[in-house]
Each structure stands twice: as C-alpha cells, then as structure tokens.
Amino acid sequence: MTKIPRRTDDDCTAEAAADRREFAQRQTGVALEHVGHTSLDPATLAGNIENFTGVAQVPLGLAGPLKVDGEHAQGDFYVPMATTEGTLVASYNRGMRVTREAGGIAVSVIDDAMQRAPVFRFASAREAREFGQWVTHHFEHIKERAEATTRVGKLRDIEQYAVSRFRYLRFNYTTGDAAGQNMVGRATEAACQWIASQYAGIDRWLLSGNMDTDKKFSRLNTLHTRGKRVVAECILPDRLLRERLRVSAEDLFAQRQISNLGALMAATNNNGAHSANGIAAVFIATGQDAANVAESSSAIAHAELTAEGDYYYSITIPSLIVATHGGGTALATQRECLEMLGCLGKDRANKLAEIIGATVLAGELSLSSAILAGDWVTSHETYGRNR
Amino acid sequence: MTKIPRRTDDDCTAEAAADRREFAQRQTGVALEHVGHTSLDPATLAGNIENFTGVAQVPLGLAGPLKVDGEHAQGDFYVPMATTEGTLVASYNRGMRVTREAGGIAVSVIDDAMQRAPVFRFASAREAREFGQWVTHHFEHIKERAEATTRVGKLRDIEQYAVSRFRYLRFNYTTGDAAGQNMVGRATEAACQWIASQYAGIDRWLLSGNMDTDKKFSRLNTLHTRGKRVVAECILPDRLLRERLRVSAEDLFAQRQISNLGALMAATNNNGAHSANGIAAVFIATGQDAANVAESSSAIAHAELTAEGDYYYSITIPSLIVATHGGGTALATQRECLEMLGCLGKDRANKLAEIIGATVLAGELSLSSAILAGDWVTSHETYGRNR
Amino acid sequence: MTKIPRRTDDDCTAEAAADRREFAQRQTGVALEHVGHTSLDPATLAGNIENFTGVAQVPLGLAGPLKVDGEHAQGDFYVPMATTEGTLVASYNRGMRVTREAGGIAVSVIDDAMQRAPVFRFASAREAREFGQWVTHHFEHIKERAEATTRVGKLRDIEQYAVSRFRYLRFNYTTGDAAGQNMVGRATEAACQWIASQYAGIDRWLLSGNMDTDKKFSRLNTLHTRGKRVVAECILPDRLLRERLRVSAEDLFAQRQISNLGALMAATNNNGAHSANGIAAVFIATGQDAANVAESSSAIAHAELTAEGDYYYSITIPSLIVATHGGGTALATQRECLEMLGCLGKDRANKLAEIIGATVLAGELSLSSAILAGDWVTSHETYGRNR
Amino acid sequence: MTKIPRRTDDDCTAEAAADRREFAQRQTGVALEHVGHTSLDPATLAGNIENFTGVAQVPLGLAGPLKVDGEHAQGDFYVPMATTEGTLVASYNRGMRVTREAGGIAVSVIDDAMQRAPVFRFASAREAREFGQWVTHHFEHIKERAEATTRVGKLRDIEQYAVSRFRYLRFNYTTGDAAGQNMVGRATEAACQWIASQYAGIDRWLLSGNMDTDKKFSRLNTLHTRGKRVVAECILPDRLLRERLRVSAEDLFAQRQISNLGALMAATNNNGAHSANGIAAVFIATGQDAANVAESSSAIAHAELTAEGDYYYSITIPSLIVATHGGGTALATQRECLEMLGCLGKDRANKLAEIIGATVLAGELSLSSAILAGDWVTSHETYGRNR
C-alpha cells in the first residue's frame, strides 16, 4: 500500500502531476498519457483540485443558436455542451431551432437563495420553540455576524423547521455571482458560534442538519428554491410543430398528461423528460459543479393548449445552481465557454441561469416530440453508438 | 442568425471542429483556443458528440489507495476523480485512508436492471387490466421480440403499474457492461410494436410514460433498482475514528440520527451527505454519463453502533448507472482511467460499481466527520477557493 | 390515580359499561348519559372494543341514488354516510345526481392484496442478498406455513426490498371479505418462525419493518396496492355539466391541470379534492376501520377532454381497505347499512369497494365544480354551521 | 330511480328521518331500526348533516388515566375512544399506564395555522413574480379584507409558491377553537375578490389550487403545519420498559432504526407505528372531522438513548386538526366526551391537541413494544375477532 506522492511546498504543479502519473503507472501498469495532455496552467488550479494529476477531456459540441428572451440574456446564443452521449447535442440543437422559429424562449429568474441549515437540539420541544422565537427576535444581530465574514453574501431570511426537540434553521443568502456553498457555510458558522455564545440551553448544534439540502434533491428545495428558480416559457404554433417535429400540439399535450401521471406514480424529482442531460453538459462546459446535477436536474414541466390550439410549454427549475465566478469558472476551457456566452465576470449569474433554463426547455421539447413521433430509437441509431 | 457549420460527409473531424471554433469566434468574438487543445482522436468520437468543436478539460486528481473487499473488485485502488471543486479529492482521500485502516470496505452489487417503461391506453380501466393479464401470459413471446434486437440485453421481467385506463409496463433488462439505455429502448420498441400488432383495443401507446425513470430520481427506482443496486459497508473502530477524524463512534451515530431526521423533513433523495460529489467526479473521469448523477446520487445511509461501541456504516445506492463499454468509456482519457482501475472491457461493470460504492462510503464518512468536528469550513478555507 | 373498573369474568356487558360511566362521572363530574344510550347488544361487541362504556352517535344521512356500473355492484344504490360535517352529504348527493344523469359510473377492482412486511437483519448485505434468493426458492414452503393458519387467506407472492444488511419481505395475501390485517399478521408470523428455524444466519427479525405500511400512506402502496385498487370512471357530457354544475368540461379540465400542479408542488398523497370525506363517512356507516382513512384516502385523479368535448374523469384509489365480514361489520347500525347496500356477507367486499369508488368520484366532481363555479363558500354557508 | 324524500320546510327532524328510513326500507328491503335509535336531538343537527336518517353507533371505550404534562392539559385524563377494532383501546391503555409510571408525557403545541391556498394565473412567469411582490406589499390590506368576514380568524401571513406562470398563495390563519376550514375559506374568498378587483392582469384565479392541502397528507404540511403542530415527549426508564413491556430501551431503539429505514424506503407519511388508530378513535368520540385523519395521521417519531440508557421518545404531529367549537363538537355524545376531558368551549383547542398528542405517543410505545416482544399477534387473538 503506497501513498500517492505529494510535493510539500507547491503541490499543484506540472511536476507534481507528472510524479503522480508516473506513480500511477508504477502501481497499475497504465500510462496516463492522455490524462497528462492538458493546456490548463497548474498554477490556476489551486483551489480546484488536490492531487492534481492531469485532466479528463470531455468532448464539446455547440448547439444553437438558442433564441433567448430573458431579463439578463437577450438574443441568440451558441451553447457549449460537454458530453459523451451521442444524440444529446443534436437533440438540443433541434429543440433550439424550433423554439427559435417560434420566436424564442422567454425566461426569468424568479427567486434566488443559497442555504446552510444548522440544527440545534434542546432538552425539550418547548425549549426548542422558545429558541425559535429568540432567533426571530435577534435576526438583525445574527445577520450582522453572518455578513461580517463575506463581502458578497447577504442573509435574506431564516426559515425555521421544528421536529421533536430540534430546531432546524435554514439560512437563506444571496451570493452574487458565486454558487456560494462555501461562502454561506462560513457565514452561518460564524452566526451559529455567536448564537451558541448568547443562548443558554443549547444541548448541541451542527452546522448542517441535512435541511440545506446540498447535492441532493428535496421537496423542500422544490418549494423554497436553492440557487436560482428559473422559469422558461415558449408558445409553439401547432403548424410549426407539425412541420418541424411531426407532432401536433394536441398530441404533445396528451403525452404531457401521460408523462405527468407516470411521474406522479413513480414519485420522481422531475415530471419532464431529461433536463439532467442539458444541465450536465452545460455545467461541465462552463465550470459549474457537476455534482449539483443532483439538485439542479429537478424540474416541473407544465403545458397548456392555447385558445388558438398552440402549445404553451414551460419548465420551472426550482434549484438551479450556477456561478460565473469561483469554482471551475476560471479554468481555461470553461472560461472560454463562459466568455462565448457573455457570462464571464460580474453580474452574469442570472444571465447564465436564463440561458440554461432556455436550453433545458429546448431539449425537453425535442425529446418529447421524438418519443411521440417514434423517432427516439432511430435517432439514437443515427447519432449514438451501436450497442 | 447563422447556423453552426457542418461538413456533410464526415463531420466529426479535426477540420470540422476547427471550422466551428472559427465560426464561434466570428459570432462571439471569443477564440476557443483551449477548447481546441485536445489529444482525442476525432475519429473515435462519432457516436459521442455532434457538432464536435473541442473539449472541456476537467482537472483530475487521484484519491486512494481505496481498500475494496468486493466480489469483483478486490484490493487497493487509486481512484481518478475529475472535478473543479477544491477539497473534494482531499476529503475522499481522507475517508479512504480511514476506511483502509479499518480493514477496507465490503461492497456488493445486490441487484441489476435497466428499464424502458412504455405505457398503453385503453377505453377503460377494465380493458387495461385485461391487457395486463395478456402481457403476463405472453411474457415469453414479448421477451423473444425484445431480445431479438440485441446480443447482450436480456429481458428479466416486466413490472406492471395501473392507474386510470392506463397500463404502464416497466421492462427490466440486464445489459452486460453497457449502461444500456439505448439498448433497452430499441428492444422495448420492438416488443411494443409486436404487442400492438397482436393485441386489439390499444388506444395509444408511447415508448416511455415516465416510469423508467431516465435521468430522474424516483421512489420507484429506490424501491426497484435502476442500473446497479450497490451496498457498501464498513465497521469503523471507535479508537480509529477518534485518532484520525477526531470524532467518536457515538457522536457520529448521534449525528446520523439528526441527519436522518433532517432528510425526512426535507424529503430528500438521499439521507446521506454528498454522494453526488464522488459519483460525479468518478463518472467524468471514467466516461460515464454525467447526467445520470440525477438518479445515481440517490442513496440511503444506515449506521449502527456495534456491541463493542464501534461504528457500522453502510451506504445503499439504489440506482447507480455504470458502464465499462459504450458511452464515453472508449475516449482516450476516460479509457486510461478505466484501465487504471482494471475496469476496461468485458465483465467489468460490477467491478466499477463496487469501486464507486466504496468511494462514496469513504466520502460520506469524511464529510460527516468534518461537520461534526467543526472542520468543514476550515478545510474549505485550506483547500478551496477564497470566495 | 384510579384505574378504570373491569369486571373480570365478562367485561363487555351492559353492567360493566354502566360501572365505567359511573366511574367516569365520579372522576370527571360529567354524566355520560347519551354515551350510554345504545341499542347495540354488548354481547356482540367482544372483539370490537375494550373497556366498553357506551357509544358515540354519528349522524347518518343518505346520498343517492348512485348509479354504479361495476362488475360486482350493478344498479342504483342509496349510500349511507355518517359524518358531522355539514354540506358533505349534500355535495356527494349532487355529484351522484350528475353522474347518474351521465349514465352512471363504471368502476372496477383491478388489484387486491393485504400485507404484512417482516424484516430480517444479517451480518452483511451479501448475506441478506443470499437470504433473498433462499426465500424465492422456498416460496411454496413459506406459503404452506402461512396458509396453515387461516381458512381464507392466500399468500399471493412475496416482494423483496433490500437496503443495507436488511431484507424486507412484503407478503401479499388475498383475504376474502375481511380487511385481513390480523389474518395476515398471524399467517406471516407463522411463516417467519418457520423461516427462522430453517435459515441460519438471521441476526434478528421483526414481524413488521414498516413496509406494510399499515395505517399510513406510502408511495409503495400507491405503486403496489394495499387492500383493493379501485378505478372509477365517468364521461360527463359538457352540456350536462353546464346545466347541472354551471361549469364547462373545458374549465373543469383546466382546473384539473392546476390542481395537479399544486398537488405536485405540495407533494400530497392525493391530487384530487377530498376523497377522505366520502371514504370516512361510508367507513363509519358500514363498520370499516376509520383509521384506514390514513391510507385509503390516497387517490389519483386523471381527466381528459374527449374528442367530442366531454369530460372523461377517473379516480384511482390504490389502497382502499374494505371488509364485509369481521371488524365492525356485524354491529347493529353498521350491519343495517351494509345490508341496505347488499354488501353484508360472503363475496361482497369487491361490491362494497366499487360502491365506495363510485361515491368518491361523485364527490370529487361536485367539490371541484363548486370551487370552479364559486359555489364553495356559499354552499357551506347554506348547509354548514355558521362559524 | 327514486329520489330520497325531503320535507322542504324543516328537513332535519325526527319525522323527516323516519320518512327516509321508511323510504330506504321500501327501496332496499332493509329496516333501519338501529340506525333510527338515537338520542340526538335533530334540532341540534342542522349544520352537521343533510338527509338526516339516523345515526351510526360506534362503540366507545375509555383508556387511561393518561398523565399529561402540557401547557394547557395538566394531570390525569380518561380518554374516550370510539372504534370497532378490537385491541385498540387495550393497547393505548397499556401505553398510558407505562408512560404514567414514567412520570407522564410532556406535550406542547409548537405551531398553529389553518390554510386556504388560492392560485392566480398570469400571462407569464414574470408577471406572476410581479404579482407576488404586490401581494407582499399589500399584506395589510389583504388581511383587513380577510378578517372583515370573521370575528375569530386572524390572517397570520401569506406564503407564496411559484411555478410556471402561476402564483399559489397559502393564507395562514389562526382560528381560535374551531378547526376553521370554512372560516378561512370565506375569509380568503373575500380577500381574493378584493385582490382581483385591484390587480390588473390576473388571467384566472381559483380559491384553492391544491396547496392547502385539505383532507390530504402533504410534505408541505409536514414542513409548515396545518392545524396544530404537536410534540409529545417521554423518557421511559429501561427498568420500567423491561418490567411492563418486556423490552429493553436498547432493543426499542434498535427497532426504531429499522422502522425508520422501512418508512424511508416505502416513503410513508409517518415513520411511526399507528397514530391513525388513536387519532381516529378520539376524533369520532369528540366530534372531530374523521376525514381529517388523512392529514392528522402524519407523524414523525424520533427516539434517543439517554446517557443513562433510558429511552427518550417523541412524536411530532405536524398537522393535527382539532376543534372544541363547531363541527360535531356540540352533538350530545361527543359533547359529553369533550366535557369529560375538560375540553368543551372556549380556549380549549390546544388542550385537546395536547391530550391527543399524548394519547398517540402512548399508543406508539405500546404497539412498538408488542411487535418487538412478539405479543402483537397473540394480543389480537386475545382481544380481537377471530378471523
């Protein structure tokens, strides 16, 4: 059993990475040649990776133009998607074409919050309830302690959830252009330490009691937002659907009912088709945290037939976590992708959220239509690997 | 509005990719230099990407050695993790060390199934019920039609779910070393076409009615498995926990109760800590479909204090979707990572599933301990970006 | 602190009840005069109540005629409903009228199973998996032991659910005209004792591991039925809806979409309106276990607009627990109500299930229409208490 | 097809009831003799029932004394339970004895709210978001309109939930000693009519969009309370458990873990044992709405082993709907039962909630212990019907 080598002074270097690739080869007999092929400057990676050894190259395709009518994103965008799944880019591309021809996708960020949810235990439920009142009355003090740790994060409010002799507090912050999980962790820890110093009778507290709910889908996040809450909407003329996708508005709508019913029965985190596909692909391309696909892939599809017989289609993404600053956004390839979208830098997180929301809607429309028109399997035979 | 260029004859070439990067620069003003820096041979990418333009480089670190006591994976493994989130590799590495010192992680694949779930509508619920009986009686015929489309896939059984005048059938297949979503789509479509030709009275059918539930967490998958159902287990001596993680078995156990309660209240897809982190990182490194983080990140943590006061800890992953063939597994960097794990090629999918299961458990232990010991925020300050 | 008096030899007598009423008066100062007013013969109550003290009188109204087109219930029924909630009977009555005028409600029992779900713990997940295989191979032996304890109950199959080092078995029985919870408890206990005597390596077992899920709503029951799975269906002509309920088919359908969406967001056990109302009222009137409202009130509403513009409406009740034998069915008032429905005695449980299914649909239609037409509040002002 | 007779002027009379019983006999051949046997004064029933025909007599037993340490209920109570399920009263009685010997059950009402949740549709998600802001700014005006309709109800706050182009508002009221569903319906309708008259751009609104969630379990209610949120707690000495229930604190705790796991897997509305039993029985005895068992039976069990090896046990009931005024509380038998508990009249709803909370905990303890000690089946053979 041999430990992975580390060079103590400056570990995120080309040399240290080479050491580790050599080490891996010695241990496993496999040369990591392609893994070592990178244009990333190791000096830029401190804070992104430990035991840096090289890179995974993920194929990247462009889809679009995607016509977006947002409050932050306006116009046509070429969307970079990094994936290894054949058909994915083609399918999103097809949806982007149809929605573009329909006049584009209206999209809005309707809520915004990042959480850390500590929990406090007391001797009894009654004491826990009293603590809850104290927290409400001391909100301004708590806010002050939390915000003292960050230039960007603002404590919006604190939700309270009560069970047994516990009080779970859910601190809601806005975090600017960062995803903010670490920022709100630090801020909430400071706030909790102050609370613990002020309030007698706390039996025990933890910085997270699993009501945040980080890297996890939850009904709570669906109700109360984590990251951005994004709604994308589009009205697709029946004529256009028939022409481009070989389905009618009425059939799409009937299928939506059946998908709703199936999702209800299966108790899914998403009554739509495959938003995880588009989200994962854009996340990897733009330096978002791919683990957040867990919660960001939750979605609520809702459709209506208009009086004119056209198809109103909307996707609500209740917990889309995006950043245009921090995380992987500064890495060379990811940065280029963000720049291409005009989403690098300050005050761009909402813009990126809108572009992703619109992308998701385009992909939902495309896959739903393919299932309906019987194109699903054949398209994978055209584009995908023959398995 | 300009379309992304395509060269009709052979589109997945270095030249076509260069065309598109130029096009992107003309359209957006951004040069995709790093995106163009790749050692992947475009000829190997047909079936993985459309509109191939370049790659996203995702930093890769090694964690381990991870000591695995599986039925397919035995011994020490160096686990490649591709991520942009500082602290992640360090945290998993820490968990691997402690579990290794505890004697390693026992892990088993306890179920295996990949689904496609078509839906059939009838004039009434009664007719839908009769159809269900017909399906049961004609299972062997249906199986024959389905399996005629694939060398590898085997139709295990068909679950039936009834609501209103619909019958949702959930075809369960084993798919060898492939993840199998496309394979089971093709097989099920063939089966459904045969059914539709044989059974009068089907009002309408769709190849998917959202009970598969592809790229989505669902209670149904938690109960009945999608991909591999993996359980990882470890007994951590109290002494070791105190020494290495500065927590006691008893405190970890008490914390688990609180996390269970929080997860129950929030109604999460996972009562554990952050399995999405480890899964996403290994998925990207080994060419798995990152969108499957949506369902693969579901997990059930269960802990017990042993009679000796040590910590029995287990993670059940009910829908872990992994492949060692097909998808992104043949790409150059991903292939190297799979080879390093001894997971490339035939009869290796269970081995990879076991390694990922053990990885997840190591990471759960590490993060839980960090929250408990108050190391969480400080470790992110050490390893993460200063935000 | 004084114990409630018991006469040891024959406790369920008029005298013992009088003793207890006197005792209550001494202890609390309140005379239980009305509670003592009963025509039930105490001799018939052994097995229904302990510390028998009298009765609660619940007002009973008739609704109907309800036109049922079932496989067991055919024709018009006057439905006894016991409730204290003003408007309830009137509302169901209204729905019965409209559905009658629409030609009646088609209703079918499409599945039938009563469960006990023991759990077995092992040293490891792998051993739990092996046990599962053993159970599958020994199904006939297990069935024999279970069925030896009952004349009526038949063990249909055993589902298996795996998590950590546990194996949860869900024994599915048919139980004739009884609800069967006790019957399946006894049968499963006998089966488990045999299993425990045959299979080495069981660490611990419990007769219930909370996957039955008795007196509780669960997603599992929604998927796999507990008691009867009943679907009621009706096509309501648009013209009739406008005339009788002052709503159009189209508006009802649009409202259904909104109710589906709200229910999805709130994560309810029922996307319909108020099936618990009808179920509780008929349950109390007919001697069913009112606690089973917990699981029986779960329902799935599904509507469609037909090509003719009429309203197809269906209710699926996945876990309706009814009996026409045992429980409270033999009590004097309850027996009269069952007789009035032609549901007392052998082979009548499905008939009762169908009548209740149809009742629920009638009530759903009525309340939905009232909300839509703006009659909801005013009707409560007409019929309900002024609060 | 014959209509149920109604006497137009004064329909809730003994004569009208007799008419209907005769009518039922003519139609069905069954004499409703026992149904006609009632001491309820029909004049008191207007507002409780339509088509009054008689009563269902539900057997009533006393359990107790139950030792309650509440903020409103203090001391020993004899709890009236109306049920037809043998063993139920005996089981609760047993739990009351043990908890009494343990010093009683601490219980608190920690939250209180009754809802009506209208929904508003707009042309787009952006307009729905703007409306949400308007509602926030006009809360005082809305409150004024709502409260103008009721002497008792107070509008506490309005939660907002956003999806697609809808805004669901959840009006939270306190309603004094009434359950309050009708009261809040009327108040919210008045508020909505005012809103609709003031705010341009509302496409359509409905008084309920299924986020209330009346007569339904929901995750939303579990998080945010409907009716009273009650926590009951008790510390059971290990010695006492062994003596009285033949189980140890440690075994009970281990069983709780297994029940938690089973409930998590099954996705239940309650991780406890059978709170619906106690709630339904007390609800029927005291004139509560039995349909509310649907939501009131939701519960969260949480246990801990204390440092001394004793058993801390708590039950949180997030949506217990109780009244001591209105509904069925004034009926003769129900009124006697409420009086016996000291719960009739003004400012008694919290007291009743506490008594029910304590009752539930007693019953949970008893059934859990019976399953663990292997008494479950045999006790039903002693007390229950032999089926």
Q: Could you walk me through the main structural features you see in this protein, from its secondary elements to its overall organization?
A:
The structure is a homotetramer of 387-residue chains. With 387 residues, chain A is α+β, with helices and mostly antiparallel strands. Chain A folds into 2 domains: 60-111 and 226-383, Alpha-Beta Complex (3-hydroxy-3-methylglutaryl-coenzyme A Reductase, Chain A, domain 2), CATH 3.90.770.10; 118-206, 2-Layer Sandwich (Alpha-Beta Plaits). The first copy, chain A, contains 14 helices and 10 strands. In chain A, strands 1, 2, 3, 4, 5, 6, 7, 8, 9 and 10 form a 10-stranded mixed β-sheet that branches. In chain A, a hairpin with a 2-residue loop joins strand 5 and strand 6. In chain A, helix 3 (88-101) packs across helix 13 and helix 5 (139-147) crosses helix 6 (181-198). The longest helix of chain A is centred in the last third of the chain and has 25 residues, at 349-373. Chains in contact: A-B, A-C, A-D, B-C, B-D, C-D. Chains A and D meet through strand 3, helix 4, strand 5, helix 7 and strand 8 of A and strand 3, helix 4, strand 5, helix 7 and strand 8 of D.
